[in-house]
Amino acid sequence: MVEEAQNTSGPLAGTRPGAPRRRGRLRRFLRLGGLVFVLVLALFVGGFLYFANMVGSMLPPEGIKADGIVVLTGGSQRLKLALDLLGKGMGQRLLISGVHQSTTPQQLRRLTRSSSAMFNCCVDMGYEALDTIGNAQETVGWISEHGYRRVLVVTNNYHMPRSLIELRRADPQTEFIAYPVINSNLKTRNWLADRNTLRILISEYVKIIATGLRGMTGLSNFPGPYPHSVREKASMGG
Length: 238
Known about the structure:
about 240 residues
């Protein structure tokens, strides 16, 4: 007796048991992953636009005086502004944080065309900080040494938000007042078309996100690349 031939031409022919279910789960997973990606991207872009607007809205305060002034190195414009504030009596002393090991007080004085008397009197140079975390630690040591409670912070406007986060995290008791250096007015120019400005803002925004994650995970309690406190008073003599 001849057995009836099996039908092998149907739509489920050759399909392994459970394969449609696995494909369905994969499609749901891909749809969910796509939605999560779109949501994360929207949050990133929205946060970046908020950050750029905040940076663009920063203005130097008027009529502000403090116990001390700290400038985070990164450009001669920052140094010149900080020294100008010191010369106007807006702080008793100035800390230049994150100075390169090979840089001398004489070089900085010539670069900024400042008086040797002011450097001898009231300028301290910090050589140990390697990044913004180190700047904060170096600054806190300097503040503790002089007993200051109110400090002006001088750095570029795009760098100011992260600097204040690190400083306030390292020393919640001191009042840190932002005195931003404004290289370009983001309110009056199309910075989205400027590749260099856009690159700097995106880079700084990503670093702020990383700083926030450090705080959430508790990693902010670990010291940065600032092994020990070395502060040298700038001396133009000798």
